[in-house]
Amino acid sequence: MTPVVAPISDAEHLAFVRARRSVNFAQTPAWGRVKTEWRAESLGWLDGGRLVGAGLVLHRPVPGLSRFTLAYVPWGPDIDWAGDIGAWLDPLAAYLRARGAFAIRLCPPLRTHTWNAARVKDGLADPGVRRLTGIPDGHVDPAGAAVSRRLRAAGWLPQNPEDGFGAGQPQFTFEVPLAGRSEDDVLKAMNQQWRRNIKKAVKAGVEVTAGAASDLAAFHELYAHTAARDGFTPRPLAYFETMFGELSAEDPGRIALYLARHEGELVAAAILVRVGAHAWYAYGASSTARREVRGSHACQWAMIRDALAAGCDVYDLRGITPTLDSADPHAGLIRFKVGTGGRAVRYVGEWDLPLRPLVYRAFDLYMRRRGR
């Protein structure tokens, strides 16, 4: 089978997504409307007129060479990765090259390794283990490993930085499996500190409520405070307003805002995104004051419970770095997330296929000079 790649409508793309158990939210038509700095296009793989695969492609021009674009497929496309990769990706490359793309960057939604919480905890405690990949006995997923080999053999170039965070999607994430589990099962798997903090929030009277679009300004004020405290650059309020509006319009259950208040004061907030059976903790914010009431843990527990009630298979806490070195400030992130009792995951990562090598080299040089 060699499917034909062609543009599809948002309605066709959304119908395909809804027929799946789940796809990443970055592969929904609405996400293309959130990423306003890119030109979005929904593409389909057609076999005899039947839609057998779909992908959201984001196009971005090269500085100084506006007629050429980088074609980016975040966490996609949604195709049969177990099949002949060439039959799927060769027609995609031909389609995009004919329309001015100088390269394709994609991120297959396939994992290569997983490490359970106990293994990660042991690694954090062992000074001889500096990275997740140094933990023995991690589970290897043969499907992801096979795709990595096939991409490399077909001329695709891996774009995976040492810390796991590139210009696009993180290669390492942390998730809590939910399929077949109850609230008690999930709670019992958490470490003592997480359970204690959830109980502290309840005892302190922290109330978690669902927010509306009108509450985004309050969320953003707390988020900007968090960014200043933790040293990252915050997204503007307009981004969250667009995100909330577009994802809600596509599916009323796609996005939710959680607000944790203590004695009427907003102490934590979080945004959850869900597509089918997969839920993501997308953004969070917390107040420096009243940290002892554990509003962030109250938000996390509320989101996990709602993901369970919605029949989700996974609660995804998203990116981590692979470091286990206690001297590395990033180690605190995985230490926090491992308390959920979940698992660390390594994905195939992002890969580039140069379609116009000279332009691609110029783009790569430009990105290196600006530090990606």
Task: Explain what this protein looks like in three dimensions.
This protein is an alpha+beta fold and 372 residues long. It has 2 domains: 4-107 and 350-369, Aminopeptidase (3-Layer(aba) Sandwich), CATH 3.40.630; 112-141 and 171-347, Gcn5-related N-acetyltransferase (GNAT) (Aminopeptidase). It has 12 helices and 16 strands. It has helices spanning 10-18, 29-34, 85-98, 117-125, 142-153, 183-189, 192-204, 216-230, 237-250, 295-309, 331-338, 357-369; strands at 4-7, 39-47, 50-62, 65-73, 101-106, 111-116, 139-140, 157-158, 172-177, 207-211, 255-262, 265-275, 278-286, 314-319, 343-347, 351-354. It has a 9-stranded mixed β-sheet. It has a 7-stranded mixed β-sheet with strand order 1-2-3-4-5-16-8, with helices on both faces. Helix 7 packs across helix 10 (295-309). It starts with a strand and ends with a helix. The model has no long low-confidence stretch (mean pLDDT 94).
Short description:
With 372 residues, the chain is α+β, with helices and mostly antiparallel strands. The chain is built from twelve helices and 16 strands. The model has no long low-confidence stretch (mean pLDDT 94).
List the helices and strands and how they pair.
Blueprint: E1 4-7, H1 10-18, H2 29-34, E2 39-47, E3 50-62, E4 65-73, H3 85-98, E5 101-106, E6 111-116, H4 117-125, E7 139-140, H5 142-153, E8 157-158, E9 172-177, H6 183-189, H7 192-204, E10 207-211, H8 216-230, H9 237-250, E11 255-262, E12 265-275, E13 278-286, H10 295-309, E14 314-319, H11 331-338, E15 343-347, E16 351-354, H12 357-369
Parallel strand pairs: 4-5, 13-14
Antiparallel strand pairs: 1-2, 2-3, 3-4, 5-16, 6-7, 6-15, 8-16, 9-14, 9-15, 10-11, 11-12, 12-13
Helix pairs in contact: 7-10
